[in-house]
Fold this sequence. Notes:
Elements: H1 4-9, H2 30-36, H3 41-45, H4 48-62, E1 67-68, H5 75-79, E2 84-87, E3 91-94, H6 101-106, H7 112-115, H8 117-129, E4 136-141, H9 143-152, H10 160-168, H11 170-194, E5 198-203, H12 211-230, E6 236-240, H13 247-250, E7 257-259, H14 266-273, E8 278-283, H15 292-306, E9 311-316, H16 326-342
Parallel strand pairs: 1-4, 4-5, 5-6, 6-7, 7-8, 8-9
Antiparallel strand pairs: 2-3
Amino acid sequence: xxxxxxxxxxxxxxxxxxxxxxxxxxxxxxxxxxxxxxxxxxxxxxxxxxxxxxxxxxxxxxxxxxxxxxxxxxxxxxxxxxxxxxxxxxxxxxxxxxxxxxxxxxxxxxxxxxxxxxxxxxxxxxxxxxxxxxxxxxxxxxxxxxxxxxxxxxxxxxxxxxxxxxxxxxxxxxxxxxxxxxxxxxxxxxxxxxxxxxxxxxxxxxxxxxxxxxxxxxxxxxxxxxxxxxxxxxxxxxxxxxxxxxxxxxxxxxxxxxxxxxxxxxxxxxxxxxxxxxxxxxxxxxxxxxxxxxxxxxxxxxxxxxxxxxxxxxxxxxxxxxxxxxxxxxxxxxxxxxxxxxx
Length: 343
Ligand code: CP3
């Protein structure tokens, strides 16, 4: 198996910089769209054979160094008892958002085997199919990011319902965060036991917070998730979008790898994180719309600056955009492999 990605996560010596892309299975791939033409998104997430098929597509097409389980961060939220639909225009929608104690009270801590058996089955299928290829990454949303969807009922502009709960009803907020923390721990532990070889925790909305609020109200829960998962001995990647202002606090999560978005120079991020942490990132997803020579220049710049970290895994700074050209993505992956070997 190509274990360059896992070695990089552990900060070990590697021959070239491994690369994978957030949202690497998705609508920019005609092959994904062909599968999605006949099935809705949530049904696809719950169909192990098809979910495994779309997980493998980018591995074959792009030549990336890791596969990431095809699913969505909101799957466990549905299993906690909320009603979830995906709208083509508005993205995920959760009816009856969580706004008070009795709503939190009603939420269940799911039993993964019982309530999300398709996740376990997809991972097992994938491990068989990936045997001589690349490692499989499992994932979850971080407690705070999941809480924002549950409180807002979807994505939001100012996250005011969430912040009002944090600032005016901290008892309700903390109770929700505690339930989510337990859910995330059992969800990720089950993924690892089923065969996930690394874990990424997505904290997509952590960057909407003032550093003091991240530090006091969110970080303790992330630390708890990371410390519990460390028992399972697989690398843990923590990705927060818009992370520049909270990097020093993120360092305290205890994660093995820190994923960074593109709004910060990777060299500056390494300075803030120190040399004991592996970094992942951080090409602007829109940079894939540049001409190929310019993409190569951006890749080289990131490789060169990322080299001073304990280890570097190349990725985008956030998910790939549906309009992206597959040809440019392949050129990017090839550039990462080529120029990191020459370094
Ligand atoms: O990375 C991968 O290839 C694995 C699959 C994956 C998806 N979502 C598939 C998906 C992963 C890891 C996610 C995580 C996810 N989901 C996050 C965290 C990462 C991030 O992007 O910040 C979040 C916030 C979600 C919630 C979510 N799911 C939103 C807001 C949307 C709608 C926006 C959009 O891009 O359409 C989704 C839908 C979604 N998740 C799609 C895919 C492939 C598109 C659905 C479709 O096929 O129509």
